[in-house]
Write a structure and sequence with these properties.
Blueprint (H helix, E strand, L loop, with lengths): L25 E7 L10 E2 L7 H6 L4 H12 L4 E7 L9 E8 L5 E7 L6 E6 L5 H13 L6 E6 L2 E6 L11 E4 L5 E9 L21 E4 L5 H11 L10 E8 L1 H9 L6 E10 L3 E4 L5 H15 L49 H9 L2 E2 L1 E3 L6 E3 L21 H21 L4 E2 L10 E2 L1 H17 L7 H9 L2 E5 L4 E5 L24
Amino acid sequence: MTIISQPDVSINIIPATQTISNEPQKVLFVGQMISGTATAGELVTNIGNAGEEDALFGTRSMVAQMIRQARVINKVTQFDAIALADDGSAVDATGSIAFSGTATEDGTYVISVGSKANYSVTVSVTSGDTATEVGDALETAFALLTNAPVTGANSTGTVTFTAANGGTLGNSYGIKVEGSVAGLSTTITAFASGATDPSLTGLFDVIDGERYQTIVYQSNLTLTTLTTELDARFNVNNEILDGVGLIAKTDSLANILTLGNAQNSKSLTVFGNKVLDDTNHKGGSMLEFDDVITAKFGALRALRLTEGADISQFVISANGALDSFGGKSIASLPYFNSPVTNLPLIPVGKGFTATEIEQLIAAGISTIGNNRTRTQVICGEIVTTRKTDAAGNDEDTFKYLNAVDTSSAIREFYFNNLRARFAQSRLTEGDLQANRNMANKAIIESYLDNLFQQMGDASLAQAGEAARRYFKQNRTVTLTLIEGKVTITMKMPIVVQLRQILATMQIAFSTEG
């Protein structure tokens, strides 16, 4: 059948004009493996929520531990990993608990190795038990913790714990004994003697061109490998590749201050954990693996910045219902007072003092500790190690991680939307022609102003008429037609965090006069 249809009509559907959001968060874990299906040094992507890390890297490995504990907080964000094999000459760190005597009463010990939150066992003692029998009971109880990154073996009452991964990693592991039993005594020997860490040659070659907003970096690995990679990614032509590396260190105040003062990167956040050398507690005052502390914070940071994620349990949002959901707007919300799930409390009087915390912040070291009621572990001020610019001048711009996050979120938003809006556009100093992809100075300025308005609405840039006027007065657009180039300069008034309230109260004895 011949069909005649006149006039010819063609209607094309084109996308609506809309702004583009920032890229989804990705977290990269770098740590040691033991054995598994993964190949050391290769990038493993999209590690799920069903315990895949055990088969990939070995159940007792530190990298599996990091991912496992991060998933307690964040089951939404993409987790990738680069696993490192132990060096062939690596020496495993060891620590021990030595029991001596014979029990003259019934009693109980609570013994924690590495992590009070995850690797604590209760050892019941009966009157008449010898040191060897108590050691056997501890060995048996600890053997049930099949994913602990340490193993224990008893010999005539001395239980020696051995790090599952070789190298210096295990030297910071803690041991704590709680409880006492008449007739028995305990002696703790702190973890030590771990030596020879993995080679890091070409470590980050496998992520060339891939962006990770967070890199959780095992605490014993060479820091310059991380900072060199991330600092080079902070400002890259025609790309958004910046991210922040996280590490933690258990050590003395003096050594942690030395570490912080030696670093100067806006892409590095270091957490300090005070080391204890008490009779019954040797290791971090927060009895947790350094790399679990950073894994949990990294998971929290990524969840906060994930669009639409439920973060209500991690923020105080009594006056801001919208802050119960993650996204780029949360970049400007303070980290301090955010709870960190399943980290052990620091015993009273054993952590850093308020004065010491101020010293740490000045050195670029962040802390996590108890809330005032000692019921929850929360974040303190989260800072980077950035202190001076390339010329050695003091620079506070990137001192706080929130400022880095806020600036990065705004930059990415502008980058994505400028690329989308002017993806295939003519450039002119004249008027625009209707229904043609064209741009001139006025349209570019207008679009920049529109994006700034949206940044104000997102609580990243300052909002209101005064802020908009400031932005317009301090942004320039220059066209170079022979090169097809647009040069833009902008001053961005960002939102900052309320960190301090100073008030003066004068006493009065009368309400008259």
